[in-house]
Amino acid sequence: MRLLLVEDERELADTLAEGLRREGYAVEVAYDGRAALAAVAAADIELMVLDRDLPVLTGDAVCRTLRAQRHPVRILMLTAAGGLDDRVTGLDLGADDYLAKPFAYLELLARLRALGRRVHDAAPVMEAAGVRCDTARRLVERDGRPVAVTRKELAVLETLLTARGGYVSVDELRDEVWQGEGGRTVVKATVHTLRRKLGHPDPIDSAPGLGYRMRELP
Questions:
Q1: Can you tell me the distance from the alpha carbon of 123 to that of 171, in angstroms, rounded to the nearest whole number?
Q2: Alpha carbon distance 25, 56 (integer Å)
Q3: DSSP code, position 215
Q4: Which residue ranges form the domains of the chain, and what is each CATH number?
Q5: Ordered DSSP codes for 19-85
Q6: Which residues are bridge partners to 106 per DSSP?
Q7: Could you give the angle at the alpha carbon of 95 between the alpha carbons of 90 and 98, nearest 5°?
Q8: Fewer Cβ atoms within 10 Å of its own Cβ: the N or the C terminal residue of the chain?
Q9: pTM across the whole model
Q10: pLDDT per position in the chain (218 positions), as tens?
Q11: Is residue 191 a contact partner of residue 152, using CB atoms and an 8 Å limit?
């Protein structure tokens, strides 16, 4: 799997790159935000470890640019700012996961493996109950009608579609989409808004104690 490591502390970047290569990743390194965007444009990057505090162009700007381009790269954001507000801001920018410095190398590896599974498990285009989700371009349609969704709503929909008719519990959605942060109320509110946007007939089924799944509509 091709991975781009974006870190301006060169000693840390080179040490991490060496370790990740031993783990089997094809690692490229960029030391500033502008070089990161150039590397993504030049190669098929699937995973990115992105430091938030970068010279020339910040990690926030890199993440925002890639998401505006609907690039499918999975982004693990690194930062010295590890407060809840900082993590929420990073995820809302479009990061798929967030890890505060200093971090344990084994945790970094575990998070990259989880993101790697999401790269391979998600089909480019998934459909169910009249809902079409293009995960690469991050586009959603209902019966041919474009549906504007937030990143969290898109991630919830992608998780439900990947389950292929199986139930996904509220706690599983919280772990997958919010990385365990936030409460069950936030998950339920996001699903409620997603259902409203997708319209009638409701394509999402819910069952007490089981969670949510995509319906099989006639």
A1: 23
A2: 26
A3: -
A4: 2-121 (3.40.50.2300), 125-214 (1.10.10.10)
A5: HHHHTT-EEEEESSHHHHHHHHHHS---EEEEESS-SSS-HHHHHHHHHHTT---EEEEEES--SHH
A6: none
A7: 65
A8: C
A9: 0.58
A10: 899 999 999 999 999 999 999 999 999 999 999 999 999 999 889 899 999 989 999 999 999 899 888 788 899 999 876 565 666 666 777 888 888 888 999 999 998 988 887 765 555 688 898 999 987 677 899 999 999 998 889 989 988 998 888 899 999 998 888 877 778 899 999 999 999 999 999 999 999 989 999 988 65
A11: no
Q: Which two tokens stand for residue 154?
A: 């898109």
Do 97 and 107 form a contact (C-beta atoms < 8 A)? no
| Placement of tokens 């008719």 in the chain | 165
Q: Hey, what amino acid is at 160?
A: L
Report residue 41 as tokens. Answer: 């444009």
Tokens of 140: 């959603």
